[in-house]
Amino acid sequence: MLSAGPLLLLMPNLLDTIKERIVVFDGAMGTNLQVQNLSLDDFGGPRFEGCNENLLVTRPDAVEKVHAGFLEVGCDVVETNSFNGTPVDFAEYDIADKAYDMNVLAAQLAKRVASDYSTKDKPRWVAGSMGPGRKLPTLGHITFNELRDAYAVQARGLLDGGVSRCKATTRKGKACQRTPLPGRDYCPSHQHLERTTLPARAAAAA
What we know:
Elements: E1 2-10, H1 12-20, H2 29-34, H3 40-43, H4 55-58, H5 60-72, E2 77-79, H6 87-90, H7 99-117, E3 125-130, H8 144-161, E4 165-168, H9 174-178, H10 182-185, E5 194-201
Parallel strand pairs: 2-3, 3-4
Antiparallel strand pairs: 1-4, 1-5
């Protein structure tokens, strides 16, 4: 069925392409990391269990494998390994202060892989993945302003790392939809970005 798409922060060249043709995005990063049967040691020990983003440091090859797999089958856009990459989520692993650097790293890694597959006739782009996080303002876990500021850190890291756009996905409620938007408003060096919402076609899983 046709539904409202994710909130997007788009670079002009990608936006122009989307206006001209269908652009194919990749699939789930987390699922494709899980099928690699990574151990706790791969994640960095028990402390980082469930922190897919820490694989950017401990097993970047596992993340690269996911990006490359989607690009090999023809995806136009791959998303960074940063779904839970805000300082709020990283605080659960005592690495909140590393959020900016980890998002830069996620963007740079994805961009490096994408560049290996990009050609003049079939350019590839990198989208900065911004998930809903584990604390929601709609449930009173966190204030809107606190979450907004956390997303600003993440957006700045992704944009400084070179993503073509930031994708705010898996939103839960209007408050959660609005909190990632400071990618432009709170990142002065990236105010050339256009903000828009695009329609997306989604199919229900069997």
